[in-house]
């Protein structure tokens, strides 16, 4: 991850950080924000953010790389920053109008939103073809083996995949009849997964 | 077993990539041949209906926009020299101008929600050129000038008066909406002078407008989408929305 995300020019447009009073313009502005947000999350492999502060909650990158990620909602060169109220509005637009994000827990937004720069169906495809290519169809895999292990040939695509997202992806595979989930003894966590 | 499968996968990927490279080179060569062909046989393409249909079909099958071709071919011969250019106009550069006019209308529609129907020539030119970069065909450099736009607008106006050129502080703007008043123009004049924005204070100091007039004009312009609001500093700023040319 040596290259920085290239923000489009509108990111340096001073009023871009103020909520526009004209409804048509505002809609256009929110669309632009969402487009940038999705590109930014994809570039830095960010899968969840706080819809209130805009803080990055999970990225698949390594710790020291995450520290270097530039801010999305602040542009120091023009001294502008989107306020929390406006950030919330942007995430609302992303969730309701674009269906590109989902609250982890609808009752408590502070837990964060999962950002779908890749759709759940696409994630399911990525995960399935990894298991297929490594010849592990039919064997029981742990969550560790699927996302953390260093010796199972994990691709960058799924290394460090966020647990909450993994659960959603696995549920898609279950629905497609391609996976079975084995719960741990206390019944709260996934103990193992069999993908067939 | 696992290892072997991986090897096969790698080999397969390499072959696919090589084929892709070859194909895209071929396509690029073919595209540039098309450009040459279009400029050599421009006359025939325009006048011979059957020939034109076949040509358009060929363009479509390789993903080349015939409109772009026409702009490029007319642009490249026009760029050779001004004497050549006037000559060109006498013949039939019409195809290129109409093609450009279509692109201008497309850009105007695309940006309308953000700028309310008033766009500077500078930004329009940047967009016309920029659009081309994103389509991925690096060899198709459209060379459009302000003059080209003015000319294609005369063509557009024969269809009705939707598009009009305004002069604001020596800069040309394209207006494709009704309802641009004199006061609106003066606000844009001041924006031009101030690097893109105005404030109530700036309007009062420069035009001696009273508070009511300032507020009415600004509110109107916000409602029409001509101005964006910035509240990042203690004094509210109103920005003219052409961030591309900043």
UniProtKB/TrEMBL annotation, chain A:
Taken from the UniProt entry, a GO cellular component term is: ESCRT II complex
Gene Ontology MF term list: protein homodimerization activity; structural molecule activity
Transmembrane annotation, as ranges: none
| UniProt-listed Pfam families | ESCRT-II
Keyword Protein biosynthesis listed? The answer is no
Q: Which GO terms describe its biological process?
A: protein transport to vacuole involved in ubiquitin-dependent protein catabolic process via the multivesicular body sorting pathway
Coiled coil regions, renumbered to chain: none
Tell me where on the tree of life, at the top rank, the source sits: Eukaryota
Fetch the SUPFAM superfamilies from UniProt. Answer: Winged helix' DNA-binding domain
Q: Which UniProt keywords apply?
A: Protein transport, Transport
Please give the PANTHER family that the UniProt record associates with this protein. Answer: VACUOLAR PROTEIN SORTING-ASSOCIATED PROTEIN VPS25, VACUOLAR PROTEIN-SORTING-ASSOCIATED PROTEIN 25
Q: What's this protein's family per the entry?
A: Belongs to the VPS25 family.
Entry protein name: Vacuolar protein-sorting-associated protein 25
The species is [Candida] railenensis
UniProtKB/TrEMBL annotation, chain B:
Q: Which domain of life is it from?
A: Eukaryota
- Give the GO cellular component terms, alphabetically: ESCRT II complex
Q: What's the protein's topology in the membrane?
A: Peripheral membrane protein
Any one Pfam family here would be EAP30
Q: Cite the InterPro entries for this sequence.
A: ESCRT-2_cplx_Snf8, Snf8/Vps36, WH-like_DNA-bd_sf, WH_DNA-bd_sf
Mention one GO biological process in which this protein takes part, according to its record.
protein transport to vacuole involved in ubiquitin-dependent protein catabolic process via the multivesicular body sorting pathway
Keywords recorded for this protein, A-Z = Cytoplasm, Endosome, Membrane, Protein transport, Transport
Location within or outside the cell? Cytoplasm; Endosome membrane
**The keyword Protease appears for this protein:** no
Q: Where does the signal sequence lie?
A: none
Give the similarity note: Belongs to the SNF8 family.
According to UniProt, the name of this protein is Vacuolar-sorting protein Snf8p
* Organism of origin: [Candida] railenensis
Lineage of the species this protein comes from:
Eukaryota, Fungi, Dikarya, Ascomycota, Saccharomycotina
């Amino acid at each position: 991850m040596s290259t920085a995300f290239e923000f489009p020019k509108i990111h340096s447009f001073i009023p871009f950080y103020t909520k526009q009073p004209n409804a048509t313009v505002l809609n256009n502005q929110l669309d632009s924000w969402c487009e940038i947000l999705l590109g930014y999350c994809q570039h830095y492999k960010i899968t969840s953010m706080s819809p209130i502060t805009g803080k990055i909650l999970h990225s698949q990158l390594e710790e020291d790389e995450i520290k270097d990620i530039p801010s999305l909602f602040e542009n120091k060169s023009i001294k502008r920053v989107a306020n929390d109220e406006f950030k919330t509005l942007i995430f609302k637009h992303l969730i309701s109008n674009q269906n590109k994000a989902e609250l982890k827990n609808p009752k408590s937004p502070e837990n964060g939103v999962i950002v779908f720069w890749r759709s759940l169906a696409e994630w399911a495809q990525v995960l399935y073809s990894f298991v297929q290519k490594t010849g592990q169809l039919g064997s029981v895999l742990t969550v560790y083996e699927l996302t953390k292990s260093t010796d199972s040939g994990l691709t960058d695509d799924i290394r460090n995949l966020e647990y909450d997202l993994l659960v959603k992806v696995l549920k898609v595979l279950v629905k497609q009849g391609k996976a079975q989930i084995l719960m741990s003894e206390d019944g709260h966590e996934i103990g193992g997964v069999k993908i067939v | 077993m696992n290892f072997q499968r991986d090897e096969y996968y790698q080999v397969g990927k390499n072959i696919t990539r090589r084929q892709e490279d070859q194909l895209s080179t071929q396509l690029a060569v073919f595209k540039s041949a098309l450009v040459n062909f279009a400029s050599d046989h421009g006359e025939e393409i325009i006048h011979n209906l059957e020939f034109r249909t076949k040509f358009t079909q060929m363009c479509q099958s390789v993903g080349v926009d015939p409109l772009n071709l026409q702009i490029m071919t007319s642009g490249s011969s026009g760029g050779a020299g001004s004497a050549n250019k006037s000559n060109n106009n006498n013949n039939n550069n019409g195809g290129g101008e109409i093609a450009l006019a279509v692109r201008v209308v497309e850009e105007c529609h695309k940006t309308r929600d953000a700028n309310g129907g008033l766009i500077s020539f500078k930004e329009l030119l940047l967009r016309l050129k920029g659009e081309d970069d994103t389509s991925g065909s690096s060899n198709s450099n459209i060379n459009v000038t302000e003059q080209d736009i003015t000319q294609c607008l005369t063509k557009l106006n024969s269809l009705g008066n939707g598009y009009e050129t305004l002069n604001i502080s020596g800069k040309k703007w394209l207006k494709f909406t009704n309802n641009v008043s004199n006061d609106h123009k003066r606000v844009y004049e001041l924006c031009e002078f101030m690097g893109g924005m105005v404030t109530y204070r700036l309007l009062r100091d420069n035009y001696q407008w009273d508070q009511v007039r300032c507020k009415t004009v600004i509110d109107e312009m916000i409602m029409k989408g001509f101005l964006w609001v910035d509240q990042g500093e203690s004094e509210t700023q109103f920005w003219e929305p052409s961030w591309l040319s900043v």
